[in-house]
Design brief:
Number of domains: 1
Helix content: 25-40%
Strand content: 15-25%
Radius of gyration: 21 Å
Structural class: alpha/beta
Number of strands: 7
CATH architecture: Roll
CATH topology: CBS-domain
CATH class: Alpha Beta
Order of helices and strands: EHEEHEEHEEH
Strand order of the largest sheet: 1-2-3-4
Shape: elongated
Length: 148
């Protein structure tokens, strides 16, 4: 599956000159835990709710300080057309939960460990549904396929 196909909604972006408070408000408004940070529509970083708390609030940063002061530079990225499985070793190696999906250097979405987990659970659910029917309803054999 392509990375682009795992995106559940468009990315929420914030310009690198905006403030920590702006970022927190945007995360709240859009119900997301991370924002792609851009400069003239080009990806320059990512800021997470954890960044705002740990690098901002905990260090007593001015709430009107620029978001690029607390963002993570050089975020993990995956090309929109790449196989989404390519992100798995990146998540393991870097111990992060999100990668920005990019197309021509511009963010088109974010793929997270949570997204991959949701997809995996859905696939397993589809796979186990016939087996569950047998276990619960006691059908000893699967129906014979119709032949024409």
């Amino acid at each position: 599956m392509r990375a682009l196909d795992t995106i559940r909604r468009p990315p929420v972006t914030i310009d690198c000159g905006r403030t920590i408070t702006d970022a927190a408000r945007m995360m709240d408004q859009h119900a997301v835990g991370a924002l792609a940070v851009t400069d003239h529509d080009r990806l320059v970083g990512i800021v997470t709710d954890r960044d705002v708390v740990v690098r901002g609030v905990a260090r007593r940063a001015d709430p009107d300080a620029r978001i690029d002061g607390v963002m993570t530079t050089e975020p993990l990225t995956i090309d929109a057309d790449a196989d989404v499985r390519e992100v798995l070793p990146m998540f393991r190696t870097h111990a992060v939960r999100r990668a920005v999906v990019v197309e021509a250097g511009r963010p088109v979405g974010v793929v997270s460990v949570d997204d991959l987990f949701i997809d995996l659970v859905a696939d397993l659910s589809d796979l186990v549904r016939p087996v569950t029917g047998q276990a619960i309803f006691g059908h000893a054999e699967a129906p014979v396929p119709a032949t024409t």
